[in-house]
Amino acid sequence: xxxxxxxxxxxxxxxxxxxxxxxxxxxxxxxxxxxxxxxxxxxxxxxxxxxxxxxxxxxxxxxxxxxxxxxxxxxxxxxxxxxxxxxxxxxxxxxxxxxxxxxxxxxxxxxxxxxxxxxxxxxxxxxxxxxxxxxxxxxxxxxxxxxxxxxxxxxxxxxxxxxxxxxxxxxxxxxxxxxxxxxxxxxxxxxxxxxxxxxxxxxxxxxxxxxxxxxxxxxxxxxxxxxxxxxxxxxxxxxxxxxxxxxxxxxxxxxxxxxxxxxxxxxxxxxxxxxxxxxxxxxxxxxxxxxxxxxxxxxxxxxxxxxxxxxxxxxxxxxxxxxxxxxxxxxxxxxxxxxxxxxxxxxxxxxxxxxxxxxxxxxxxxxxxxxxxxxxxxxxxxxxxxxxxxxxxxxxxxxxxxxxxxxxxxxxxxxxxxxxxxxxx
Amino acid sequence: xxxxxxxxxxxxxxxxxxxxxxxxxxxxxxxxxxxxxxxxxxxxxxxxxxxxxxxxxxxxxxxxxxxxxxxxxxxxxxxxxxxxxxxxxxxxxxxxxxxxxxxxxxxxxxxxxxxxxxxxxxxxxxxxxxxxxxxxxxxxxxxxxxxxxxxxxxxxxxxxxxxxxxxxxxxxxxxxxxxxxxxxxxxxxxxxxxxxxxxxxxxxxxxxxxxxxxxxxxxxxxxxxxxxxxxxxxxxxxxxxxxxxxxxxxxxxxxxxxxxxxxxxxxxxxxxxxxxxxxxxxxxxxxxxxxxxxxxxxxxxxxxxxxxxxxxxxxxxxxxxxxxxxxxxxxxxxxxxxxxxxxxxxxxxxxxxxxxxxxxxxxxxxxxxxxxxxxxxxxxxxxxxxxxxxxxxxxxxxxxxxxxxxxxxxxxxxxxxxxxxxxxxxxxxxxxxxxxxxxxxxxxxxxxxxxxxxxxxxxxxxxxxxxxxxxxxxxxxxxxxxxxxxxxxxxxxxxxxxxxxxxxxxxxxxxxxxxxxxxxx
Lengths: 425, 521
Description:
The structure holds 2 protein chains of 2 kinds. Chain A is an alpha/beta fold. Chain A has helices spanning 19-30, 68-78, 89-105, 135-146, 163-170, 195-201, 205-215, 236-247, 261-273, 409-424; strands at 7-15, 35-39, 110-111, 118-121, 127-130, 133-134, 150-155, 177-182, 224-228, 251-254, 280-283, 286-292, 298-303, 309-318, 328-331, 334-337, 391-393. Chain A folds into 2 domains: 7-106 and 265-424, FAD/NAD(P)-binding domain (3-Layer(bba) Sandwich); 123-254, Rossmann fold (3-Layer(aba) Sandwich). Chain A contains 10 helices and 17 strands. Chain B folds into 3 domains: 3-44 and 149-223 and 327-368, 3-Layer(bba) Sandwich (FAD/NAD(P)-binding domain); 85-144 and 225-314, D-Amino Acid Oxidase, Chain A, domain 2; 388-512, no CATH class. The longest helix of chain B is centred in the N-terminal third of the chain and has 17 residues, at 63-79.
């Protein structure tokens, strides 16, 4: 409740506006808690839009996972300290459904197999395993599964996305793949082309027709057409359907290098639709200070560049992310947690943080560093007791997981947010 | 079918010495092939400070080398000004440094013919505000900053114009000998995966730290010591002049300005083999902690890259300290090994590279019966355009001036446009080399900005496919190789914001693209 003295009270304050913060705020609001949320949503612009659950086995050298649910059972046996193991699989499933359901209502439906990972083409022609993909990418998953005759289209001036590269790399195992490079028909001006500009243009009918006219002569016996992710921002589904109709074959998107339009879609969906879930949002605001009162409530100073208002919360959930999210601060002397200075589980010294080879399949030790929590997701002090009774943590700030190498970013965010919100309510 | 080539002289090694020798011999009318297993300056010639020594650093440990540095330094400033920024240098002592050494400094310098003048402390701080306010003595000397890559490419460009052939990415496989004479050398073309046989009258081993390994293949032993020196590049230029610590040569002693950045070093770490050379976290931490006494800013400035080179030292005695082993060069005729057409030139310093090339060329010419005199001590080194794009700030200036919106930027941090990429690629192709991401990084500023290649590598790879420079899955290997190479220089410097950058890079290249291990369709 906002009061005259610029103070806002709530049951739960979520600190962080990445995927874990968003999932936690959503789940808590759905449970009827009064929720406030602060954090920078800009980082979401770097999201690929793909929702990974668990694609590569933890602690392995790239053991690829087909069925993530089965693999999570394995994980329970082999690495019980992994944060995934603190949440039941049906709860993770429910959380994933809630998140994709929220995005579907926001105009961004997702698709996927019930129990299997999907395989998606990347802009360098590799294959990525993921769990849920935007519907606009789904025809590509099907085309890859069946190796149907397929045309990959790139747009001249849209840098970092070459149809020739994707086709050359994949062609040995997918002979009926072809590449073509087209100009944006309505934009004759020279210079770089940006996905966002093209995407906004395609939300209008005339440019869609012109794009279809430019592609049509190259169709031949093609059964599907792949494009970089440029098919609209707010009306992607409608843009896709219209292009399908105009070309007579399914059209699909391939992720582009970040910051990509698929990130913009997510950011805007959260910016617009989270407040409609009843969440009091302080996006583009940081929490500058946090202190616990005698009655146990947290008092948080929130503002853009300096404290502007006060939030009083019965519970706080820390979802500030790792280094990029600024939840963890890597100093030469060691890694610290940024807001509460909670102990960080970490390698002995800086020499052990990273391996000598960037792409070493064993991964880097620093990525397993993070916050230790109890079975209710409360951060622990060095003696193993919760630092505060009513402080919780979720997402990539947690220790004993490597979300990048195990392709589990969204899954981890959703699972731990779900677990933490269960513990709070 | 195997490729066979013949020439008068085969030079093995494409560093400062090898390229300098190629030019010297070409100017005397000798036909040469230069073979290099990697790219130009891949060893110590690319892994050093870029310091043109006044000689003052060696007045105590090696007065003869100090004199050589003074003479050669002056000569390079005059004959190859395009490669030199004549910054001048300071020697600075801080509390705790040896009083006697400070007191004798000017006298010792003058004994070697080196100019050194005392500078008022207040004035010194005005000249170089980065200096520690605690400094107790400052002397000005004639140090300068030199671009080693430009130097080698300019040497090679003139040699090429006179007929020298260059084989990059060609590694020595073995020597075929007959009665004390090497009749041919077998090379492996690492890109084409073919074997090349070269027949040469004389062979010069100018492989720097690898000289021992190459000589051993020819049946000649050299007792070598490998001393690794690590350096860091700061994001900004910290000083106008070269700053030296006024003490007997030790670690963390020298800060050299280079265009818009500064280079700080070095260390002296014994390693077992030259291939094991890479900067370590512990070395960098120790070096920065030590260097703060001289330039306090070193503790909190942002660094963009660390690198290391191996000092190729030929052991004569049993000195415990690698800095005590002579920094002079070693020219070995291998006659005692029963070889009459094999020569090794190693050791030495970048500043004396020309002299090393001259002495080696003299021996080669004596053996060939060529009586032409050396011309490199008085003829200017012509500037080539080969290395022009390594200069910071040049491509943005050109790009803004040209105002061609169709010339898309491939590297946004350092503003390298497609036209520059294409020009470098064409020049590589013309010279018979395959253009790759690493070669581009070496010849331009790509990958040297804050993103350290995360984004530009993808734009370049896509462009290369569009231009037909890459086929099948080559792009994946090209990206992996480029990113791993960039990582070598980033990894020891990962703290603070650089860790976030590395995390973003990993999320992109591993999280999304899965480059840590590909999935087969």
